Amino acid sequence: MITLNEIEEAHKRIKDTVNKTPVMTSRTLNDRVKANVFCKCENYQRMGAFKMRGAFNTISQLSEEDKAKGVITHSSGNHAQALALSARILGVKAVVVMPKNSPQVKVNATKGYGAEVVLCEPTLASREETTSKLIAQHGYALVHPYDNDNIIRGAGTAAYELIKEAGELDLVFCPVGGGGLLSGTSIATKGLCPKAKVIAVEPKNADDAYKSFQAGIVVVNKTTNTIADGLRTNLCERTFAIIRRNVDQVILVTEQEIVDAMRFLWERMKIVVEPSGAVSLAGVLSGQVTVEAMRVGVILSGGNIDLEAFFELVQAKIGT
How far apart are CA 191 and CA 173, in angstroms? Predict the structure, then answer.
C-alpha cells in the first residue's frame, strides 16, 4: 500500500527538477459556486502536465542496468512527453509507442524532447503488442503510464503541494482516466486532510471508472468518444484498489460542461488548459456535489492542446 510518507519522499526526490506549479484562485469562480476554490495548475508543469512528476520519479529510481538499456512506454500524449523529457534529463534512451491518431502537437513534442517514436494502430491491444515486441528485442524497462507505484507516488505530489500551500481542504476534485493521478491525489489528500472528500470527475462519454466504482469490479468500455483525450484510458487493478479505498464519489460531466469549464478558465482566469485538465472544474461547476461554504481543491491536470485550428482562424482574419 502506498503511503503519504512515500509521496513525501517522492516530493523530495523530484522537487528540484519539476516545477512547483502555482495555486490560483478567482473571485468570480468563488462567487459563482459560493466556495473558496484553489486550482492547482499543472498546465504550468514542465512539458505541460502532471505526468512529469511520476515519470521523473520512476526513471530516477531505476537500476543502472535498466537505465543503460533505456525505457519504453505506450502513450497518446502527456505521459509520452513526460517520459521523453525525464529520460533526457537523466541521460537515458526513451522509446515511445504512440497511436497513429495521437494529436500531432504531442507527437512533435515527444520527438522534440529526444524520444524515438514508434507509431501503432489506435487500439490498446496494438499499443501493448508493439511495446512488448520492442521490450523483447531490446530489453527496455517499461514505464507504464499509471500501472506503476512510483508513477502514482510522483503524481500524488501535486495534491501534496496543493494542500501544503492552500491549507486544510474539505473537497478535492480530480480527473480520472487510468487512475494514476487520482490514486496519488487520494492518498495525499486523505493523509493530510483525513476528513476531506475526494471527488473523481470523468467524461460521461468515457465512463469506465464510474461504472467500475458502482459495480465493484474493473469495467472496460469498448469505445470512448470524448474531447478529453487524456482520459480515454481504463483503470487497472492497481489504481482501482486505491480508488475504492480512498475516493468518496465518481461523477460524470458532459462534453459541453467540459468545454464550458475550459472556456471559463481561459477567459476569466487566463489559464490555458486542455479538455482533460478542465474536467475537474467541470465537476465543481456541474453542481452535483455541494461545495457551498467549503474549501475546495481542484487539480487542473494539463495544458497541452493543439492550437493549430485557432491560429488558422486568426491567420485568416489578417488575410495571409
Answer: 16
Under DSSP, the state recorded for 248 is -
Residues 179 and 156: beta-carbon distance below 8 Å: no
Active site includes 20?
no
Q: Report yes or no: 120 and 108 within 8 Å, Cβ to Cβ.
A: no
How far, in Å, CA of 147 to CA of 229, rounded? 18
Q: What is the DSSP letter of 43?
A: G
Q: Is the entire prediction scored with pTM above 0.70?
A: yes
Residues of the chain with pLDDT > 90: what percent?
Answer: 85
> In angstroms, how far is CA 143 from the centroid of its own chain?
15
* Separation between Cα atoms, residue 306 and residue 311, nearest integer Å: 10
Active site residue 12: no
Catalytic site residue from 51, 67, 106, 190: 51
The catalytic residue among 76, 186, 276, 301 is 301
Domains annotated on the chain, with CATH: 4-49+150-300 (3.40.50.1100), 52-142 (3.40.50.1100)
Span 255-308, pLDDT tens digits: 999 999 999 999 999 999 999 999 999 999 999 999 999 999 999 999 988 787
